[in-house]
Amino acid sequence: MELRHLRYFVTVATELHFGRAAEKLHISQPPLSMQIRALEDELGVTLLHRTRRHVSLTRAGKAFLQDARQILQRTDQAMLTARRAARGEIGELAVGFISVADYNLLPVVLREFRRLYPMVTLSLKESTTDAQIADLTEGRIDVGFLLPPVTEPGIESVPILREPLIAALPERHPLARRKGSVSLAALADAPFIITPRHMAPGLHDDIVSFCRAAGFSPQVTQEAIQMQTVVSLVSAELGVALIPRSLRNLQRTGVVYKSLKEKSPISEIRLAWRTGDSLPALQLFLELAQQMADLNLQSESKLATRRQ
What we know:
- This protein is of the alpha/beta class.
- The protein has helices spanning 3-15, 18-25, 29-43, 59-87, 105-116, 129-137, 201-213, 227-235, 280-307; strands at 48-50, 55-57, 91-97, 120-126, 143-146, 155-170, 191-194, 219-223, 241-244, 255-258, 266-274.
- The N and C termini lie far apart (74 Å).
């Protein structure tokens, strides 16, 4: 017995007319009659009563029809599931991210991906850039939002967000009370809070170089791995910090965010994955993330134009 025999029978049983059933199946009537007869012979029962004017189901035919329909429905579902899995619409995807990504593109990408592909299970892991590189290399995550540079062999990456640095100041700092942007040079005597270089060498070096270009070397008195912790230490009045602009979305009591008068280096978040990874869900995720990044860039450009 083949699936086509079941489809032939279900169509005839539904139409109760061999001619109409043959039209729906796009075959001629005599071969259809032969296939139904062959099915009955294989089963050893009569499924259909036939006369020149009438076709009806036998008791065996009614019972067989119910199961045949369920088999075909399950078969169709299995085919659909297989095709969705091949397209990446079903499965699992492990996503790593640095804390700062949680305040810009990450929530938007995750929300849209879950809306479009609800049958893909997302496993999220917040960690530092160096930990994500290790997780990617060893297969514990499939894609990561991290900071540059990404130079490890076997790892590819693309920029997903580019934004300037801003100053995070304790609210009782004299510059926090002033309107408008502040000069970086005015922070020359302030204690700085910064991420350790081994955790984020690109961002660390950008901040140090930026301060030196303003005429001073930052007095680093505290280091913190996570950006939320950096902002929390600013709130505790332990120092000032230079942070990516999107962190202003982190509303923390006791902290004032200020844009800088000097042209800031650009902080970058990159999307990274293993070279040659053909996981279908990963390809969908990368495409969607890039689309969301492009839309975000367009929105930022329009906002900047309005401000001008």
